[in-house]
Amino acid sequence: MTSPLPDPVAAGPAADPSATGPADAVTDLRATARWTIAATAAVGALLLGGGPLVAVGRIHGWADAATAFGGLALAVLGIGWAIWQTGEALTPRLATLADLRSPGMAGLREAVARDPSAYYGPYASLDELAAGRRLHEKVAAELAVRLAREQDTDRTRVLQQGLADARANAEQARALQQRLLTLIHAWAVRNAVRRARVHTLAAFVVVTLGAVLFLTATHEDTSAQPAGSARASVAPTGPQPAAPVPR
């Protein structure tokens, strides 16, 4: 027979209904990713809207055409890169308890190491938590079989109490594992959003470079004018002969 283990969650202070948990964090992170995609699309529409069509008449020669095309291609590539990387944070992903040992979970492992009981409850480690759940489920199954065969009233009560305790312990271990899974999933989404921010920043550098190239190719240089037109535009400074008077 097993005795119920103390629940670290129930033993603590009452939960604050306004507090947010890992599931709420995932929602907020994905909302941030959607906002990033919307902002990137707005910037792309601003850069690639009607501007290229208006400036295309200022392109003279193959060199300017190649520069303008390369600038537009870089801008489109940068915007697509930013949207693609940010969209990765919105992609549904699976999480397992084994992911806690992955390199991307180093920060989460440090937080768990600072207060193991807040994550593992009465267990010392992740492996012990999994082993404890299997043990309590096995004990509960064995007690259920014995209870079905027991005819004595006193023994039946004892077995019923042991079965209730074993099921409670197994449920507690299952709840701790589920909370860890939710936290691991939230941490994975957090890593994806942070990685997308870095890629978005790099993509905007590419977009800026493309815009500079395009503007360079379509810029009108008004300082260089034909020599003949420049001379024609300058008024003569010397005295001019008077026009003959018709007789």
Tell me briefly what this model is.
By secondary structure, the protein is mostly helical.
Number of E-type strands? 0
**Major sheet attributes:** none
Shape: rod-shaped
Helical fraction: over 70%
**Unreliable stretches covering 5 or more consecutive residues:** 8-20, 224-235
Mean pLDDT: 76
Percentage of residues in DSSP E strands:
under 5%
N- to C-terminal separation? 140 Å
Describe this structure in words.
- With about 250 residues, the protein is mainly α.
- It contains nine helices and no strands.
- Helix 2 packs antiparallel against helix 4 and helix 4 (about 60-90) runs antiparallel to helix 8 (about 155-215).
- The radius of gyration is 36 Å and the shape is rod-shaped.
Please tag this protein with its features.
rod-shaped, 247 residues, mainly alpha
